[in-house]
Amino acid sequence: MTNGLHTIEHENLSSKVYGALCDAIIKGQFQPGDRLKIRDLAQTLGTSVTPVRDAILRLTHDEALIFLSPRDIRIPMISRARYLEIRTIRLRLESLAAETAAQRITEDDLARLQDLIERNEQALSSSNTALGLELNQAFHFELPAIAQMPVLYGTLRRLWLQMGPLVASAYSAGGRTMIDPHYPLLTALKNRDPAAAAAAIQADILSGGEHILHSSAFSDRE
Length: 222
Description:
Layout: H1 2-26, E1 35-36, H2 38-45, H3 49-61, E2 66-69, E3 72-74, H4 80-104, H5 107-125, H6 129-146, H7 150-174, H8 182-190, H9 194-213
Antiparallel strand pairs: 1-3, 2-3
Helix pairs in contact: 1-3, 1-7, 2-3, 4-6, 4-7, 4-8, 4-9, 5-6, 5-8, 6-7, 7-9, 8-9
């Protein structure tokens, strides 16, 4: 019985560490090519190295990290071709999330999205790129949550794990193009218009993608 309880506690701690590292990667706290050190991460998170090592292995499986050796763990630098493939998948899946969200959205959901946009405007005005990036990603993740599609949410989160650092590296150069497309999407959701919501999220992804494509963080940069 005691062994079982210890196992559960360890699994819960590993999951928490995994979640914390996922959030850090998605929010752009690491840049493409950055090297991660297990002991440093354990010290920062206040844990032993074991749950960090477990989380690193899971993130490697998610293709969010490259595990070359225990001393060489890195944020991957992806190619333009891989980014474009991920973007194509996002166009389909986030459109589905937006369409379904338009059919299921509540007034509370709309208020939450409005608040994210307003806070993002404040972040933009104060040149707080880190906060703006976080709020932008939160806005995108709200769509599958509002759509009540947890499987889709998990799939999109895994895609964002792979491209989060790349988006972060190009976010500040995007300026208003990273937030302006959220307004027509919010209007479409208020109107409960699935087609318009899908078109708006596609415009958002493509608009922001233009700045990402000019990033120097690709593995095949010229």
